[in-house]
Amino acid sequence: EEAARNAAQCDRIAADATAVAGVTRVGPADAARRLPHLVCLTVEGVEAEPILLALDQRGIAVHSGSACSSEVLEPSPVLEVMGADAERSVRASVGWSSTAADAAAFGPAFADAVTTLRALRA
User: Fold this and answer.
1) What predicted TM-score, i.e. pTM, was given to this entire model?
2) Residue of higher predicted confidence among 13 and 88
3) Rounded mean pLDDT, 103-122
4) How confident is the model at residue 108 (pLDDT cuts 50, 70, 90)?
5) Terminal-residue alpha carbon distance, the chain
6) For residue 3, which phi and psi values (nearest 5 degrees)?
7) DSSP class of residue 84?
8) In terms of CB atoms within 10 Å, which of 17, 68, 100, 122 comes out highest?
9) Is 40 tagged catalytic?
10) How far is CA 75 from CA 43, 46, 96, 99, in A?
11) Three-state DSSP class for residue 61
């Protein structure tokens, strides 16, 4: 039951995020082959760190890169093998305390952060 709830929340996060131009979900297309509690996204034109800071200012905690290389400064070899731009990857996770409202709040905050950061680069 928890895995199904997590998967639904991650699907909502991914759908809202990929509605932003230049954002793609990393990982298998087949939902059965994905972890139900993680979403990895790559964002064209913006590095991960500014997105993390912008979302933190909006009360949303995310991470960059992959979980298996979160403590190193080099780009994640896992993401590179998957064909993702490790420098522009954002990872969101949900858990037992995550709510549907949490997942719903991600989309507008993420879109605003990415749009604002892209405008600064222009």
Assistant:
1) 0.86
2) 13
3) 95
4) very high
5) 45
6) -60, -40
7) -
8) 17
9) no
10) 15, 15, 29, 31
11) coil
